[in-house]
Amino acid sequence: MSQYDEGHTVAGWTGTGIATVGSAVLGAGICVVSAPLMVGGLGILVAGLLVTWALHLSGWGKPSGPRPRGQWPMGVRDLTVRDGHPDCWGCRLAGRGRRTADVVAVAGEPAVAGEPAVAEAGSVGR
Questions:
Q1: What SS3 class is residue 68?
Q2: Where are the alpha helices (DSSP H) in the chain?
Q3: Among 10, 13, 123, 126, which residue's CB has the most CB atoms within a 10 Å radius?
Q4: DSSP code of 34?
Q5: How buried is 81 (Cβ within 10 angstroms: 0-12 exposed, 13-18 middle, 19+ buried)?
Q6: H or E stretch including 19?
Q7: What is the helix (H) or strand (E) element at residue 91, kind and residue range?
Q8: Which of 6, 8, 14 is nearest to 75 (CA)?
């Protein structure tokens, strides 16, 4: 068995199943030139994306990279997901994971550590 678990997660398999059905419905709609089937297939694909994302955020998806042997089985829930997985777009879209710098530069001015970067009205471009 691979140290990377090869994506064998509840979120991964559920998303794959829903996407397969959505692709089949979309393909059937294209073959018979049926707009309702095509829209339905696209709707199923979007639903599959949202279901997979929700399962990932609830701990049924796992981060990429090597994991301890105890986390290899598919039915093991990832309890570290509350903090977000590093370099995971799904976690970042949900407001989890790697945070950007606390201090943001204001319109070309370098940010100084410890100072909040708040722009006053009309102060941009001085």
A1: coil
A2: 10-31, 35-55, 89-93
A3: 10
A4: -
A5: buried
A6: helix 10-31
A7: helix 89-93
A8: 8
